[in-house]
Amino acid sequence: MEKRLKWFRPKTIKHKLFLIYVGLLVVPVFLVGYYISTEIRANQIQTKTEEIEQDTIRTATELTGTLEAIIRVSDWIYQDERLAEIVRADYSSPYAFFETYQSYPQFNDYLKYYREISHIRVYVDNPSIMSSVGLYPLSQDVKDSEWYQEAIEKRGQIIWRYMKDPVTRDVHLNLTRALYDYDELIGVLSIAVSNDKITEILQNSGNTFFLTLDDELIFSHPKLEDIQSEYDQYRLLLEEQETDQN
């Protein structure tokens, strides 16, 4: 042990100066460099985290604005007395219905001025009404569907569903609700949110987004081949984070 200790003892002035140089200059520079690199990395992480948070808030705000626009239109339709009159009437011929409906431009106006809307459908139990923009006679398939029955049960409450459209067979996020006039059922409303609008909002973000409804993945950005697997991994990571916080 003594021999080993002797080996580390500076034997000359040159050795002593070298050790002083290492102690006074090299070590502090190394420590300062390590501190600076650590601080820079921490600042980069913090900056990136703040960017993600701000981007998430902006995207959520745009999505909320889109859904609020859909809700607003559904409220107008719910309170539309003229629509209730048209739906209640018994038409002697398709032309009689067409002539009456020509004086009701509201659905066309909603589709024209609200890019958030893909289509509007009001299903009514009136065989004298012909399929047109916004109004559709109630078929047995629609009447037996789960979403229609739920809308009736909720009696005017707003319901969000990701479902296939009975007319086009395309899949959209839909607002559904039953329409009543003085407790009398007028019809069941379905407003489809534009897929292009949602995709546009998500694409404006530089981060990965998963949009879910009742734990069902309905939209994502970017689009991946096995998006469900990616989402499952994300959920697992989120659950682990929540467990650590608790």
Automatic annotation (TrEMBL):
<feature type="domain" description="Cache">
    <location>
        <begin position="44"/>
        <end position="234"/>
    </location>
</feature>
<dbReference type="InterPro" id="IPR033479">
    <property type="entry name" value="dCache_1"/>
</dbReference>
<keyword id="KW-1003">Cell membrane</keyword>
<keyword id="KW-0472">Membrane</keyword>
<feature type="transmembrane region" description="Helical">
    <location>
        <begin position="18"/>
        <end position="36"/>
    </location>
</feature>
<protein>
    <submittedName>
        <fullName>Cache domain-containing protein</fullName>
    </submittedName>
</protein>
<dbReference type="GO" id="GO:0005886">
    <property type="term" value="C:plasma membrane"/>
</dbReference>
<keyword id="KW-0812">Transmembrane</keyword>
<dbReference type="Pfam" id="PF02743">
    <property type="entry name" value="dCache_1"/>
</dbReference>
<keyword id="KW-1133">Transmembrane helix</keyword>
